[in-house]
Write a structure and sequence with these properties.
The structure holds 2 protein chains of 2 kinds.
Chain A lengths: L2 H4 L24 E2 L1 E3 L2 E3 L6 E5 L6 E6 L3 H20 L2 H17 L1 H12 L3 H22 L17 E5 L5 H14 L3 E5 L6 H12 L7 E3 L4 H9 L5 E5 L2 H11 L5 E5 L5 E4 L5 H13 L11 E5 L3 H12 L20 H16 L3 E3 L15 E4 L6 H4 L6 E7 L2 H9 L6 E5 L3 H10 L4 E4 L18 E2 L4 H6 L6
Parallel strand pairs in A: 1-5, 6-7, 6-9, 7-8, 9-10, 11-12, 11-16, 12-15, 14-15, 16-17
Antiparallel strand pairs in A: 2-3, 4-5, 10-18, 13-14
Helix pairs in contact in A: 3-5, 4-5, 5-6, 10-11
Chain B lengths: L7 H4 L10 H9 L6 H11 L6 H13 L1 E4 L7 H12 L13 E4 L4 H10 L6 E6 L9 H13 L4 E5 L2 H5 L3 H15 L3 E5 L2 H4 L2 H14 L3 E3 L11 H18 L4 E3 L7 H14 L12 E3 L2 H14 L12
Parallel strand pairs in B: 1-2, 1-8, 2-3, 3-4, 4-5, 5-6, 6-7
Helix pairs in contact in B: 3-12, 4-13, 4-14, 5-6, 7-9, 9-11, 11-12, 12-13
Classes of the chains: A alpha/beta, B alpha/beta.
EC number (chain B): 4.1.2.4
Pathway (chain B): Carbohydrate degradation; 2-deoxy-D-ribose 1-phosphate degradation; D-glyceraldehyde 3-phosphate and acetaldehyde from 2-deoxy-alpha-D-ribose 1-phosphate: step 2/2
Protein name (chain B): Deoxyribose-phosphate aldolase
Chain lengths: 488, 325
């Protein structure tokens, strides 16, 4: 198919009129305190920071900046609450979790708009992916709370104590749910630090905890930056540390925790390989490639950021991919028809820009569909690099943005070798109509999750986590409970 | 419908050898890329979430009306019923003459003359008469009967023939038989345009629907059509999306453009928009006209008209403000 024909899907007749989701469903206060022991309070040091909308840099709110004293107060509140919370029968803890799940569902439109404002991702994603998964995680782990004897950790597994949880900015509320739901179901109490650029949904979640009547101190939210997180994971009265974020920070945390009796799970970076064989269902593979790298602007640890395509179908796949990318709608995240939203921060945008420039400098061929980016805010056009070799930086380093590196392979063995040839090991995808090949490759790929003929599918029943520098421990499913229980 | 700029056989030349034998045709059709059902359905569902508002809605409503093959295919059809439907097709909204006409009136062959005459009397010759044929809906008749059925419909004034394929032959793997049937019916159509109905609900798998699409296009179909409206599963967003992908790929391979007609079960404006969005984002401008995309529908028209009235007046009317025909 030639390029002229593949460009024909850019419609000029049927342009979609703006269809913005209403902002009025969410009421953001001008300032927020820390949520400690069931109350919002100012930071002990009195310091605050602002959180902005990445789409237009508008200031959304002022948030308390938590420091060591605040972290200490939060951990003490969690420690005090632990005695009664862990002693509750599982059926009672389940009631609170079910209640939280239902309130999340009831307030999902409000939370979706809030998350889109604070994070920059499209409302279509917060509405159709983030929020339904948040509720599903609470429902799922609510069901486990009275069945812990069957979790595979012995007949009477005990909770660990206070869990220190640090979550990233790419799925602020969903990562909170992944952390808090299993911790509470298992009988732990938590202190959670949301990311500096996306603190708001965690603070709304604090309100949901109050609405659900959750006992004071069971969930504490301390907003702040990296120093706040470091104080939290280093606190001596914390028994469990759970972190999702960059590999660099993960290594620091591992060093901090080394030599203590704190349990640690890390969910870090990735450089996922999406492997397309010549017998793949091509139209669906193209959708999987697009979803794999442009979902959430590619700011996904398990993104399929390396496309490994069999050389015999390289041109066909690339033509189809480019044709499809021309239909992507980049812009206002609150518009219900937007496919690709804003990059979360100026800092992240700078990193993506730097790596993309390195790709060009190293000789890979850069392509983006024609798209007009808004003037204000942080934006990066969907980008595809072809002619990428394993030795290119864009094939090795995590870009964490809407940038796809395309490599080719000739045989299944070469595909596996290239897919595994990375310090990371979080995700991989296999596209083929041959079932036996899927089963064989899934065993050979060193990645925590391997998707077959799909990509970026999440479910609370399915454990998620990495190999190698992508971290250790699993979240989700029965395995996700192990991280929050003493093993008999 | 316009005539193609290039003669068909020239365009299909690159694929001319695939139908030289049953074995060659089977190899070609079974060699088409597979369809992943989960992925196809997810894509159709995602496109179904597009939000069509204000100016886009006004455009889509009028476009959808102009793409309707307004259909009555009942044992109880009478000349009166058909004439009434023609009047409706020519002037869908008696209170608003700016409402566009439908594309065609779709009837059984024995009603084609009635429809043709009614449209002429209405001064609505721009509306085509489409007639089903080839022992619709089952297709269970001899080839001679099917061809006679087709010729009679054309002689009675049908501009378009909606034929059904022999699903039995297709499911038994006798692809060449289906291919030859389509070719012969196409020849019997003369100047009339040919829509080929697969009855997707009976082909059952997406792989089969993709194969049937290529088979029909290779044999000379002007349009490919999902279903008769007479079985449990008719047009669905995924099976229509699959056919849209097939006509896209066929044009890329041969240069020939083929139309698509989903039929059966599309009853609301909201449903129609989902199909138009699929056309828009799979095929683009080139197919966004009644020449290349049709809805086989009856009750859909009234919902489009009610939505149109709502857009013009700001108020919802109700079923008593559109005509029952």
């Amino acid at each position: 198919m030639n390029d002229q024909q593949s460009g024909s899907t850019t419609s000029t007749l049927f342009g979609y009129a703006p269809a913005p989701e209403s902002r009025s469903v969410v009421d953001i206060a001008p300032s927020y305190g820390l949520f400690i022991d069931g109350e919002f309070r100012e930071a002990a040091g009195g310091k605050v920071f602002t959180t902005r909308s990445p789409a237009d840099e508008e200031v959304l709110s002022e948030v308390a900046y938590g420091q060591a004293d605040d972290v200490d107060a939060a951990v003490r509140a969690a420690r005090a609450a632990f005695e009664t919370w862990s002693a509750l029968p599982g059926t009672e803890r389940a009631k609170y979790l079910f209640r939280i799940a239902r309130i999340v569902q009831e307030r999902s439109r409000e939370l979706a708009v809030l998350e889109t404002l604070d994070n920059g991702k499209p409302i279509r994603e917060t509405r159709d992916a983030d929020l339904p998964l948040v509720a599903a995680h609470f429902f799922y782990y609510a069901g486990w709370a009275d069945k812990l004897s069957y979790a595979g950790c012995g007949p009477d597994p005990r909770p660990l104590g206070v869990a220190a949880q640090v979550v990233p900015w790419n799925f602020p509320l969903l990562m909170l749910a992944w952390k808090i739901a299993p911790a509470l179901a298992a009988g732990n109490t938590v202190v959670l630090k949301p990311a500096e650029t996306t603190p708001l949904s965690a603070l709304f979640f604090a309100d949901i905890c109050r609405q659900a009547g959750l006992p004071k101190g069971v969930v504490n939210i301390v907003t702040g930056d990296g120093a706040t997180g470091a104080a939290l994971v280093g606190h001596p009265d914390v028994h469990k540390v759970a972190f999702t974020g960059s590999t660099a920070v993960g290594k620091e945390i591992a060093r901090t925790v080394a030599g203590t009796d704190k349990r640690l799970t890390l969910e870090l970076g990735g450089k996922g390989a999406n492997i397309v064989f010549e017998d793949a269902p091509l139209d669906q593979a193209v959708e999987g490639i697009v979803g794999g790298i442009f979902f959430n602007q590619g700011q996904v640890c398990c993104a399929g950021s390396r496309l490994l395509v069999q050389e015999s179908v390289h041109d066909e796949v690339l033509d189809a991919l480019k044709r499809r990318l021309r239909t992507l709608r980049v812009g206002d995240p609150l518009d219900k028809n937007t496919d690709v939203g804003a990059i979360n921060s100026a800092e992240q945008l700078a990193r993506i820009t730097e790596l993309a420039e390195a790709g060009e400098a190293e000789g890979a061929e850069r392509w983006s569909p024609p798209c007009e980016l808004p003037e204000r805010g942080h934006w990066f056009a969907p980008t595809v690099f072809t002619g990428v070799g394993q030795a290119h930086r864009i094939a090795q380093e995590e870009i964490f943005g809407p940038v796809l590196s395309v490599l080719t392979f000739r045989t299944p063995e070469e595909a596996v070798a290239k897919a595994n040839n990375t310090p990371y090991g979080l995700s991989a995808g296999i596209w083929t109509e041959k079932g036996s090949r899927i089963l064989k490759l899934a065993n050979q790929l060193r990645a925590g999750v391997v998707w077959a003929n799909t990509f970026n599918k999440f479910d609370p029943t399915s454990p998620f986590g990495g190999y190698k520098e992508s971290g250790y421990g699993r979240e989700g499913g029965r395995h996700g409970l192990e991280a929050y229980l003493e093993h008999a | 419908m316009p005539t193609d700029a290039a003669p068909r056989d020239a365009g299909r030349g690159s694929l001319s050898d695939v139908a030289t034998s049953d074995a060659a045709l089977r190899r070609f059709l079974q060699g088409l890329p597979g369809v992943d059902a989960v992925g196809l359905e997810a894509r159709a569902a995602a496109l179904g979430t597009r939000s069509i508002k204000t100016t886009a809605k006004a455009y889509a409503l009028d476009l959808a009306i102009s793409m309707i093959d307004l259909t009555t295919l009942e044992g109880a059809d009478t000349p009166g019923k058909v004439r009434s439907l023609c009047t409706k097709g020519a002037h869908p909204d008696p209170g608003d003459r700016s409402a566009p006409r439908v594309a065609a009136i779709c009837v059984y062959p024995d009603m084609a003359a009635t429809a043709r005459q009614a449209l002429t009397e209405l001064g609505a010759d721009g509306i085509n008469v489409a007639s089903v044929a080839t022992a619709f809906p089952s297709g269970r008749a001899s080839m001679a009967v099917k061809l006679a059925d087709t010729r009679e419909a054309v002689a009675a004034g049908a501009d378009e023939i909606d034929m059904v394929i022999d699903r039995g032959a297709f499911l038994a793997g006798r692809y060449l038989q289906v291919f030859e049937e389509i070719r012969e019916v196409k020849a019997a159509c003369g100047a009339a345009h040919l829509k080929v109905i697969f009855e997707n609900g009976e082909l059952a798998t997406y792989d089969n629907i993709r194969r049937a699409s290529w088979l029909a296009m290779l044999a000379g179909a002007d349009f490919i059509k999902t279903s008769t409206g007479k079985v449990a599963v008719n047009a669905t967003p995924p099976n229509t999306l699959l056919m849209l992908e097939a006509v896209r790929d066929f044009r890329a391979a041969t240069g020939q453009q083929v139309g698509v007609k989903p039929a059966g079960g599309i009853r609301t404006a909201k449903d129609a928009f989902k199909y138009l969005v699929m056309v828009n984002e799979t095929l683009g401008d080139d197919w966004l006209s009644p020449h290349w995309f049709r809805f086989g529908a009856s009750s859909l028209l009234n919902d489009l008209l009610m939505q149109r009235q709502k857009l013009a007046t700001g108020r919802y009317s109700g079923p008593d403000y559109v005509t029952v025909d």
